[in-house]
Design a protein that fits this description.
The chain is an alpha+beta fold and about 160 residues long. The strands form two sheets. Strands 1-2-3 form a three-stranded antiparallel sheet, with helices on one face. The chain is globular and about 45 Å long.
Length: about 160
């Protein structure tokens, strides 16, 4: 299981298998965030832009750019797979709402089903469900916790700023 140290996340473990990706971040260097934390408040945080990208950050970026999980190998409905593909298309450092995902997959009234599919995502890193937020600009739920969701979003913004 690869181990990385990333700003805002501390030491993370990333387990990669053909049918799932699992991420653990036992220490997060952010104040606790709830699902009701507004993105605007989160994005006003200091991104430590004076520090260049570390070798761990470059390695994680390489993994992210090569990450293409085989969704057909997972027991899931076509609907869930279509939601996961839509999530995978959200660019690094950007977010999309549940409503936007529902529209992307051609089912704009399926908000609850989209939310359920997002929560059932077995590819936490390669299908970046932390990029899915509420329409009102708040973080929303994340299987690994709102603080980690906030840290991942901040880390992505930092990486984009330093590229």
């Amino acid at each position: 299981m690869p181990l990385f140290t990333l700003p805002f996340l501390g030491m993370i473990e990333l387990e990669i298998a053909p049918k799932y990706w699992h991420l653990k971040a036992p220490h997060v260097e952010l104040p606790s965030c709830s699902q009701d934390t507004p993105l605007s408040t989160l994005y006003s945080s200091d991104l430590h832009l004076e520090a260049p990208l570390s070798s761990d950050e470059r390695e994680v970026l390489a993994l992210l750019s090569s990450a293409h999980p085989e969704l057909t190998e997972v027991e899931a409905s076509l609907f869930r797979r279509s939601v996961w593909r839509a999530i995978a298309a959200i660019p690094l450092g950007q977010t999309a709402t549940y409503q936007e995902l529902a529209q992307t997959i051609g089912n704009p009234r399926a908000l609850q089903a989209v939310g359920t599919a997002v929560g059932a995502n077995p590819f936490v890193w390669a299908v970046p469900c932390h990029r899915v937020v509420r329409a009102d600009g708040r973080l929303g739920n994340f299987a690994l916790g709102s603080t980690l969701k906030a840290a991942l979003l901040l880390w992505e913004r930092r990486v984009l700023a330093l590229r």
